[in-house]
Amino acid sequence: MNETHVGIGPLSPDDVVSVARAGAPVVLSPEVLDEIGRSRKVIEDLADDAKPHYGVSTGFGALATRHIPAESRVRLQRSLVRSHAAGSGPEVEPEVVRALMLLRLRTLATGRTGVRPETAQAYADLLNAGITPVVHEYGSLGCSGDLAPLAHCALAVMGEGEVRDGSGVLRPAGEALAAAGLAPVVLREKEGLALINGTDGMLGMLVLAAHDLRRLLATADVTAAMSVEAQLGTDAVFAADLQALRPHPGQAASAANLRRVLAGSEIAASHRGPGCDRVQDAYSLRCSPQVHGAARDTLAHAETVADRELAAAVDNPVVTLDGRLESNGNFHGAPVACVLDFLAISVADVASIAERRTDRMLDVARNRGLNAFLADDPGVDSGHMIAQYTQAAVVSELKRLAAPASVDSIPSSAMQEDHVSMGWAAGRKLRRAVDGLTRVIAVELLTAARALDLRAPLAPAPATAAVLAGLRGEVEGPGPDRYLAPEIEAAVAYVASGRALAAAEAVTGRLN
Question: PROSITE patterns recorded for this chain (predicted)?
């Protein structure tokens, strides 16, 4: 597995995914450690200054007016981490925690935080040992950054709190560190603050969600194409010259995918010509590129924001390039929170149109000659009737998850932190939304595949036929009613793993 080199420059989204999900090892170069050491000297030179310096010789937040004597500053940093590790609720997924730790390490590597080289190295060591601090669902307001989640990670570096070891076993942090041959870190001036004051949790969730949505949106184009075929829809509306009349890049990319996936379809060809009475298809078929395209353009904007954040050094105060220690507001999560919410809206919209395409295939009044609910013996069999119920329930939940978190704010820290971003909450609900979209697309695929089988002897396009064949390796074709839940889960796994998209791309080449 390739190493991920954490340097002064930005990480790539692929680096984040590789470390978070695949456990890629992390390396800090000697040059990075030297830069961290140079900025640390700024902090050490200020330690004996009579002038107060936030995070070095003062308390925190609303307690920043309290001067802390030198003999209490190690306790100050330790107390900060312990008190801020105040999360509650279920454990957050390990991939999110690993992404959070990597992104905090990247900011430490810029040399703008003033930590010691050994403290930065401790984060790399924890990641490489596969030790994942236990972080909880609730605790972050997204400003000053993701305080509680990051504090739980800093607590683990100190040898306190709970972690999951490389085998996923829940253990006391000190015990897990000792088993991995790692020593706890005793935090010095400013280090506790530097470890908890960033937007790393919400950014990690944004990067992971964007990675998944790239695949899901391309898969949604594939399932839309399958639905168009299954419902004897027309592919003429996806023509490039028609799409160019409204030059949104996402729309053009989606329409191009639909054209490539539908190429060579006997089903589409069967009703093309003067005898065809399909002048216009329903919006859920005809407008698929417009809806999927809007989501793609939203995703492109979100990825731009993520790229900017991946190049940022988020801390307060920061050590400037010319050696000053300055307070700032860069820890505020608003830029990330807004696009997390924006993506949740697009996810709900893509899922909504997919559900409408699915419902049309089941309605005998609209599915152009197929059995009601695609049932083998309608009345005795219910076919995919309740699969659509499940899909509709998910879509309804996605609409609730589309309500923005970033418009909310609850003042904290005795009104010192009086406007917060709620970006962590926006990230948490986007993760649920991505899972929901995966399930909605999977039900559309399962239903469209059944409908395409029922169109035999007409053959689907080579690309959609390949997707159907891959599904049939795990799920049987049409017949009397069977236990449906396992088939839905098999389709979910087929979509989530990327295998459904890969089956189409084996015919079409890489889709947009």
Answer: PAL_HISTIDASE
Distance CA 353, CA 349 (A): 6
Per-residue model confidence as pLDDT tens digits over 335-382:
999 999 999 999 999 999 999 999 999 999 999 999 999 999 999 999
Same domain for 217 and 242, yes or no, is yes
The residue among 412, 416, 478 whose CA lies nearest residue 448 is: 478
Q: How confident is the model at residue 450 (pLDDT cuts 50, 70, 90)?
A: very high
CATH of the domain at 93: 1.10.275.10
The residue range of the domain holding 402 is 205-314+326-508
pLDDT over 90 (residue 277): no
pTM for this predicted structure? 0.96
Same domain, yes or no: 225 and 169: no
State yes or no: is 494 an active-site residue.
no
Catalytic residue among 54, 138, 389, 494: 54
Taking the C-alpha atoms of residue 466 and residue 452, their distance in angstroms, rounded to an integer, is: 12
CA distances from 310 to 12, 79, 120, 304 (A): 7, 29, 17, 10
- How far, in Å, CA of 281 to CA of 278, rounded? 7
Pick from 166, 181, 198: which residue ends a domain?
A: 198
